[in-house]
From TrEMBL:
SUPFAM superfamilies referenced in this protein's UniProt entry, alphabetically: Amidase signature (AS) enzymes
Pfam families the UniProt entry points to: Amidase (PF01425)
Organism: Litoreibacter meonggei
Cross-referenced InterPro entries: Amidase, Amidase_CS, Amidase_dom, AS_sf
Keyword GTP-binding part of the UniProt annotation: no
Keyword Secreted attributed: no
GO molecular function: transferase activity
Ranges where the Amidase domain occurs: 27-432
Keywords assigned: Transferase
Transmembrane intervals: none
Listed name of the protein: Aspartyl-tRNA(Asn)/glutamyl-tRNA(Gln) amidotransferase subunit A
Amino acid sequence: MSDKWLFMTASDLGRGIDTAEIDPVALTELYLDAARGHEFSDRIYARLTEGRARTEAAAAKVRADMGQRRGLLDGVPISWKDLFDTAGTGTEAGSALLKGRVPDSDAEVLVNASHGGAVCLGKTHMSELAFSGLGLNPVTATSPCVNDVDAVAGGSSSGAATSVAFGLAAAGIGSDTGGSVRIPAAWNDLVGLKTTVGRVSVKGVVPLCARFDSVGPLCRSVEDAAHLLAALEGGKVADINGVSLDGMRLMILESVAFDDIRPEPKAGFESAVERLKAAGAVIERKEAPEVADALALSGTLFAPEAYGIWKDVIDANPSVMFPEILERFRSGSQISGPDYVAGWRKLEALRVIWNERIAGYDAVILPTSPILPPNAERLLTDSEYYVTENLLALRNTRVGNLMGSAGITLPTGLSSTGIMFLGAPNSEERLLRLGAAAEAAFS
């Protein structure tokens, strides 16, 4: 058994199991020991599923010994955000409103991943009901950023990201409604894949906004993301081998994406762009006015749906919620039904313009977030700081959600900064191939 296993990619761990260099039972025990003993364990894991993990690891070992592995991730331990239903295990979505909620069955994506042999380590902390990109949660726990433990980790998949970044899981599964996979991935120097809404099942996933909710992995490599996507879907792994950036056309989104950007995220992005150019990518900078128009619809579209889903539960016990999150939900009550419907009609028209604009490019690129992870204590004590940072955190990622895009974020090499690639709906395979080539250029 080796501590280096804790920081290997999920794919490399799978190859180690395949060659019998790694025992999946020993690997799972190593991760469980690490998770129990880590100084931030209680701020990363809401609860471990030790019995399940050991049973799944033992089954994976039998298959490995018999030469009957189900795939590369068979026997690899991963974590799950605490909004994926897990049979017999509390699933509370980071909220006291759901305290004691224990589902009878697994979410469909967990069923798929388990059938493929992935080992379920446990459930990770998150922003309350997934309605914040910061990862600040004074109700349950606030996960620390791997690069600054006094800062938030990003949300809402905060524990999913930090379980990987601190070496407490080989990969994490999260959800993304406005950037909740990509922000914590970027702030913790990971790869995060935002899938197209409707592509990956959300059956058995605690909802926030059904028309925007998506499921995706947070991991150490693009290869991991490809295998995890296949595991979540129970499908075929994208072929990302032999890809070159030479001649690929990329569009830097100028509209809004660089407004109020801090020096570090800008420097990380520009450095990544130079490496993409050096590898042969053709890069153009372009405005897309429809993006600003779409972002202006955010308040009209997200909060009303979220409050519509959760209104009765929230209004029955509002005092147990973090006031900032409560206020954000209740802001949805200020939007009329006609305005909501009109907003969606307008967004659908803007999506047509956007998809026509980007059709000639392999991807659109922009900084994943215009800010670095904010200080957790200051967020709790300085309301103006909270509002400013909360609005900026998800500003760039939300472009992908509003436009219905698939997206992937990669670390730039500068701590807590990411570069995001956005593509047309259902372009995950293309983005993974592009991501693999970009990853090689960055390394």
